[in-house]
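Researcher: For the record, we're logging two predictions in this thread. I'll number them. Prediction 1 follows.
Model: Prediction 1, sequence and structure:
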Amino acid sequence: MEKEKNASSPSGVNINKIQPANRWYGNLKYLLVGILFGIVFVKAEIISWFRIQEMFRLQSFHMYGVIGSAVLTGMVSVFIIKKFNIKTLSGEKIFIAPKTFNKGQIYGGLIFGFGWAVTGACPGPLFAQIGTGAFAVIITLVSAVAGTWVYGYFREKLPH
């Protein structure tokens, strides 16, 4: 069974004309990668509230090393994708849209950092924290979803 998908590239060309319909078990690979990612987060102590507090109090390099290596890996990966015109596994061209800076990114970053420091959680590790039995983090998860919804609702009225 196939279905039409209306995704297009920035040039307006339809890049995914026909795509096979996903079956529920087709998403198991994402579940398995997510579980593996969560295990790595737990073992590396990235989800530890104490490690996060050490970072914000400038008492330890651990989290800065993890974040720095992730940023460096991302930079090298994007460079390689652009330099060698790497395509997806299905053969599609990877398009990375150019980014422009605006002052809203500073405000958003400050709000994000403040929330991260107060809760000891950022969106990535929330599920891993819940998975380790820190069920109080469910409040943080619900708050993150609510904050995202509020931003989406008022986005057009906010300065960008």
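Researcher: Logged. Prediction 2.
Model: Prediction 2, sequence and structure:
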Amino acid sequence: MSSLPIILVLCTGNSCRSHLAEGILRNALGDRFRIESAGSKPAGYVHPLAIRAMEEINIDISSHRSKHLDEFLSDTVETVITVCGHADQACPMFPGQMNRHHFPFDDPAHATGTEDEQMAVFRRVRDEIRTVFEAYAAGRLDSLRA
């Protein structure tokens, strides 16, 4: 097991938002942290439009898989970040957990309409997540330099 601090991003289904955040955070933080995502009720897949939305910003999440948060209960999770209300309510405390943040976002998996209309929702949520998580990552990196 890696000795890097673990940042765990949680949402209910672990099919969209948490994977978008995981990819963006891993890209922003590099190899200083172990970034993971999971769900309280995993969907069992990563949404293809989430993968496509991330490809547009040159971040590859095609190898991600949908995981249950129980997979991390025996790990020392330093920070938990929830990205939907249900996961925030269902989130257990993890051994060694020092930080908890809640940054809620719309679930793009519920987008309707044509594929182009759905993709527009995925892009909007991706960009909102990118803004929040890149700012979070910058703060974490600043604190390492202090």
